[in-house]
Amino acid sequence: MALELLRDVNPETKVLTYKDIASSKPFRFTIGPEKQEFTIHSALVAAQSPAFDRLVNSEFKEAQDFHVELDNVEEDTFVRFVQFAYTGQYCEPDLDVVAGASNATPCGEAGLAIEEAAIATTDPSEELPQAEPAPEQETLVEERSRPILTKKKKKGKKNTSDVPVFQILNEKFAGRVSELSEEKRNVPEGVLFKENPTTNPFVTHARVFVFADYWGISKLKDISLRKLAKALEGAAVKKSATRDRIVALMQYCCDEALPEELLSLITLFAAANLPALWISGRFRELFGENKKLSVSVVGAMITGAGL
């Protein structure tokens, strides 16, 4: 049975059969500083993008040896690419699972599930939660029109999400998440994926996006950006453990030259949640030391809030 892989590939490699994949020679990848070796069917590697097609089918030494070394790619990132290549999706680290350590999470059917996962599906039960509208601000007139004998409310810390500029930025970020969440793909249940307790979900999705952008895998770029947006939208920034992981994402922004599409999503989120992130001393250091980060976040605030 022919399989139409819904990816950005060369016209001649758009249709593969299970026979094409299973009969193709394994292509070896040596990944990261630890030189961990992985193998993928070469026909499936070539189908991912024109760049991978040239890697497998060319006169270059790598194509002749059916082997390439990628020292600057993290093992965790490559494992998720392998999962995507065979299923059309990849497991996303769960914050609770990561924080709670080593439980394995179900993530895909045993065996290949290329055909089923290659078809985009929408599951209504998995729709992203819509951002709740922020409470309306009391006007100065309403405040002054209260009777003098009215008992005053106790003063408390003002919710920064109710401050107009941050309210606007949060709404803008929620709108961006909504735009990205139009297409959904599900990993069939079955295979257990044991998550590393130290895995940072936010950095994981960002790294997968950078990998996909470098190799020209459009579908994987879309999936990883959606997953990052969804993870950020549901993040409890006021929790120190979550905030630390988000600050690590900001560090990643400073350390790497990120594609604009990825950087703009991250900095819009940072702008919308600046008061909560500002609690972190490390974030304040990054903001002060790294011009790229500070300019991007302030720019997102000005543009996003229409200032």
TrEMBL record:
Species lineage: Eukaryota, Fungi, Dikarya, Ascomycota, Pezizomycotina
SUPFAM superfamilies for this protein: POZ domain (SSF54695)
Coiled-coil ranges per UniProt: none
UniProt protein name: BTB domain-containing protein
Top-level taxon in the UniProt lineage: Eukaryota
Domain BTB, chain residue ranges per copy: 25-94
InterPro entries: BTB/POZ_dom, SKP1/BTB/POZ_sf
Biased composition (Low complexity): 127-138
Region (Disordered): 123-156
Pfam families the UniProt entry points to: BTB
